[in-house]
Backbone:
């Protein structure tokens, strides 16, 4: 090969490798999805498992965590401590309007700690303010009874409809509690989050907002002994706090209803949805009826795929916590 030919190849190499270097130096920036979580953390422990996934997911920008139902200040204090223990104190914690408690709060003692704040701003005002600041950009993750949602619609329905979408853990369309897919069929029944504020659920399903629903049909995913042992023994700040809250909860096998909402936002293919018309009746049933769709509903999920993603992400296995 001539000297000139070798020189040409060398220049071409520099051009190509330089372009590759430039591309490597400026990778495409991932813009995190803005979310607000509305939770009744402190009763069942699945809310804490959902919050753990949120703080372990760099694809999400958690604008705030709102508490709903019962003693909302106690729930906010539990959230304060969890976020402080895992190094996420920049996330605001807001309290919804308190309602009469219906049961003892199993994890209340966790929030009785110096890391908890003495009071918290109004959740609904925060929600509406964030929507005005980021119209069309915020996903509301609703994993508790819907008091804050109903009040937000009452205060300013026009602003509420500027949410990007609501992802809801709630309802029971074709399967009820205890129908795990391999047992005898259990008919649909009123589900906790809907039943505890039927009027607000009716407002949400009638709001016209893009609504994605994770009902009992797809969320009864059991964190069995083997999975618990793996996750709760990892010794990270997040898994250590989950271990404390799990033991305060005082039962054996959690059902991870609420984390399905976060998994749907992060990996929608793990809980595929279909368009349905859902009517919330006065008894809290979520009835599948003919009519124009008002919700995208996940009726089936794959437990193995769900746990493969969830456990690796929260345990911090592999790149970006998922391998």
Residues:
């Amino acid at each position: 090969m001539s000297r000139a030919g070798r020189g040409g190849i060398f220049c071409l190499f520099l051009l190509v490798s330089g372009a590759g270097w430039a591309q490597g130096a400026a990778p495409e920036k991932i813009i995190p999805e803005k979310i607000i979580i509305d939770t009744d953390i402190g009763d069942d422990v699945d809310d804490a498992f959902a919050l753990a996934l949120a703080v372990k997911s760099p694809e999400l920008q958690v604008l705030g965590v709102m508490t709903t139902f019962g003693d909302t200040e106690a729930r906010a204090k539990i959230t304060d401590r969890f976020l402080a223990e895992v190094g996420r104190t920049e996330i605001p914690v807001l309290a919804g309007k308190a309602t009469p408690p219906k049961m003892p709060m199993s994890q209340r003692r966790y929030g009785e700690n110096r890391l908890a704040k003495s009071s918290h701003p109004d959740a609904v005002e925060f929600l509406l303010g964030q929507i005005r600041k980021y119209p069309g950009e915020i996903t509301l993750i609703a994993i508790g009874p819907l008091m804050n949602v109903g009040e937000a619609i009452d205060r300013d329905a026009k602003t509420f409809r500027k949410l990007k979408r609501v992802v809801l853990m709630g309802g029971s369309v074709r399967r009820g509690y205890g129908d795990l897919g391999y047992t005898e069929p259990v008919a649909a029944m009123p589900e906790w989050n809907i039943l505890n504020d039927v009027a607000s659920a009716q407002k949400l399903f009638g709001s016209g907002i893009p609504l994605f629903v994770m009902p009992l049909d797809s969320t009864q995913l059991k964190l069995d002994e083997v999975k618990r042992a793996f996750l709760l023994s990892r010794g990270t700040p997040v898994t250590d706090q989950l271990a404390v809250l799990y033991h305060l909860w005082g039962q054996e096998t959690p059902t991870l209803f609420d984390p399905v909402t976060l998994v749907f936002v992060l990996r929608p293919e793990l809980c595929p949805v279909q368009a349905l018309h859902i009517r919330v009746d006065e008894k809290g049933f979520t009835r599948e009826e003919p009519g124009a769709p008002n919700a995208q509903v996940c009726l089936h999920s794959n437990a193995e795929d769900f746990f493969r993603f969830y456990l690796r992400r929260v345990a911090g296995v592999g790149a970006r916590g998922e391998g």
